[in-house]
Amino acid sequence: MNVESQRDVEFLSNQIPATYFVFDILYIDGESVEELDFVDRRKILDAVIAKRSKRICISEYIEEKGKALFKSVVERRLEGIVAKYKHSKYRQGIRYSGWLKIKGLLTQDCVVIGYTKGEGNRQDYFGSLILATYDKGKLRFIGHSGSGFGFDQLEETLKLMQRFRTDKCPVDPVPYTNAQPIWLRPELVAEVKFSGWTQDIIMRAPIFLRFRYDKLPTECIIEDFQQQQQQVTDHTVVAGVGKKEEEEEHYLPPDQNFSNVDKIFWTVTGRQKELTKGDLIEYYDKVSRYILPHLRNRPLSLKRYPDGIMGKSFFHKNWIQEKPDYTKTIQVFSESKNDIINYLICNNKETLLWLANLGCIEMHPWYSRVHDFNACISAATCSEPAPLDDENCGLDSPDFIVFDLDPYVYSGKEKEGEEPEYNTKGLRLQLMLHWT
Predict the structure, then answer these.
(1) Does residue 269 form part of some domain?
(2) H or E segment and range at residue 211
(3) Residues 86, 225: one domain?
(4) Cα 164 from Cα 188, distance rounded (Å)
(5) Is residue 52 assigned to a domain?
(6) CB hemisphere CA count around 162 (13 angstroms)
(7) What is the pLDDT of residues 159-205, one digit of tens each?
(8) pTM for the full predicted model
(9) Are 111 and 186 within 8 A, CB to CB?
């Protein structure tokens, strides 16, 4: 989606071709079949798409096991299911009890009451939407959302919102915003997804999905997730599984406080949407069980990118600031600095996500582990620092080796400090040398 370059289209078509799933049929040979029962329309559809291919498929359904299916959908963090009454007719453009969208992820229709001025690479556009819902007839502020927009959407979205500008804030009291707000008349509806509610009824990490032109602002009320789940039990349905949102789903653990999750860390490219700090935290959350065994008891040198991959970065080794109780440190004497370095240790997921929240895109562990924290500390803190206790501390006993393969070759024409060009022949040569 949103790819315009013919070269990129051809590349993506070969690498990750799209599959078209057909779930219903409305006309055949110029005749409407909308008044037929759903199961009868499906029989026609099966006949029409008799020769199924890898790229055109019929969306399957599961009958009479809606409750078990929905439980499985929630466990896998899929978007949800569509529950369909088997004898339902097709009704265009209206909400219809014969078809129910039952969500596995939390989504909310919101009234857009303003936006904040953009900063950095968004300075010409906007930072985040300011969102509200109706509560007892009055608008109530429920949060901000700056994620979910491709860079090519920003200008179009800004032009749309500027049609509704007003000088008066639509909600009372005026909500806190982290940048200068521009208020809008409460006429524009946006759908967002989010990971949960705070005690103050503010959405956690809301992500923009789309504008809803089919919905009135007054219809935007806080949806009851438990009631949606109950619908699975209360209706005899035919259930179809919704799409999995692997690229777009943003799930931040609710028990930690993260800051500036909407800040863009990777800008949009022809093949990849923009990624935020929240995406970085979510990534480390998902890979935590794989990465933690390799980080355990290893001192860390952190490379921090507070403004994303294109901003200024710095290495951080000596941690002298406050830290959470669940995070360990180890003091190691540095001969080069003739001083003690207080290294962070990452032994649990909470620490891993805390580091990601600090903007640590890169975490460089030592090649050795701490065997005995007391032995390391005693060696590092005596009046005249002594060598570490090899047998007990363990930090001068590496347990793995890294081969750094650089896929480039110097031509001799590079300016001082300039990196050489990437070279596949050079990489193959290095692989052969390391292999032999």
Answers:
(1) no
(2) strand 207-211
(3) yes
(4) 8
(5) yes
(6) 9
(7) 999 999 999 999 988 888 878 899 999 999 999 988 788 878 888 88
(8) 0.41
(9) yes
